[in-house]
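GNAT family N-acetyltransferase
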Amino acid sequence: MYELKSSQFEVINRHFPYLWDKTVIQGVLEANNRGRIFIDQMEQPKAALIWAVHEMYYFVGEPTSDFISSIESFLEEHIFPEAIKTGDDHFNLELYPFENWNSHIPSIFNKYIVNEGKRVPFTFSKEDFQNYINESTLKSKELSTYQFEIVTKDKILGDSSHILKTEIEKFWPSVDHFLSKGIGICVTSGKEIVGTCLSVYAYQNHYEIGINTYKTSHRGKGIATEMAKRFIMESLERGYIPHWTTESFRVDSIKVALKLGFTKHNHYTVYHFPLKE
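Tokens:
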């Protein structure tokens, strides 16, 4: 396996053009977001491994016999130790094209019990979002106790809990890079940051949304919806298109997406297993 430098990432779109609309992958390829890329051969790559740090792994291209026989040991020796050090303790895998790879998964992983999951993609409708805005003029009393703000450098520096910096640096190479190319909304209760909605991946005029409410005591009050609403409004003002993807078991996330004007599409299969120490 050969690791590409960021200046060589364009090789992936040239040889695997069907990835052009994958926001997470393209965020890595543009070197906006943290990731590493490996290919099976430099001249005419047939298979690639893309690691979007803290998010997803991707097998891309054709499952050649050499790739199938060596990728598990390669991951164990070169990738998983680094992932575990960064707190990324789960292997989540998407396949492109899926039909090329799915039948090979049992033979690729011999040391792990591989589980199947379902991811739910959405597309954004500006018209449906505007309808939601027009119909939701009243705020709940519970939301009045929270403060919603755009994430700025001053906000990050003033965050004694370091939640903002930690969340941003999971996906971005630096805070400054995030501030120059991404956006975020945070919500506070008093001085405590209780939630964030960030552009966890960005390329061209596309943002992938990552949203978190950190304590259960603050959930179920509409915080996530309000953060995402403000994030989308800010995205649209800057000319960006928001993207939303989640797991099929995250019912609340699906409800929020539908409420805010996203259209749900058929789920697709992903594979996952916990990493060993």
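Residues 22 and 203 are 10 Å apart (CA to CA).
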